Amino acid sequence: MSETRLSLKEMCATFDVTPRTLRYYEYIELLQPQREGRTRFYGPRERARMTLILRGRKWGFSLEDIRQWLLIYENEGTEAQMQSWIELADRQLDDLAKQHAQLAEAMTELKEMRDSVAQELAKK
Fold this sequence. Notes:
mainly alpha, 5 helices
């Protein structure tokens, strides 16, 4: 494995993603690998971007949010990107809190229904 560039196969193994995922991220302009003929090579910039993309996905951000955030860095620099990140993170934290509350409610209802059915079965 090269220190400076990874092949498509190496990139997939490093980040545990499929070739289709990498090609899609390239298609929507999240990644811009170097090309030599039909072969793609991923340098340090693309590996760093991939780390950010996967982290953003883990936290529930849409690919469009991630793409916009990466574009801000390219066009406006680090400070603007950090400010944008704070705004995105605040919004995502609110969304996750709502989802957490909905999930907790669903789990409570499901447990109550399960316990009720179990009690009915125990009576028979």
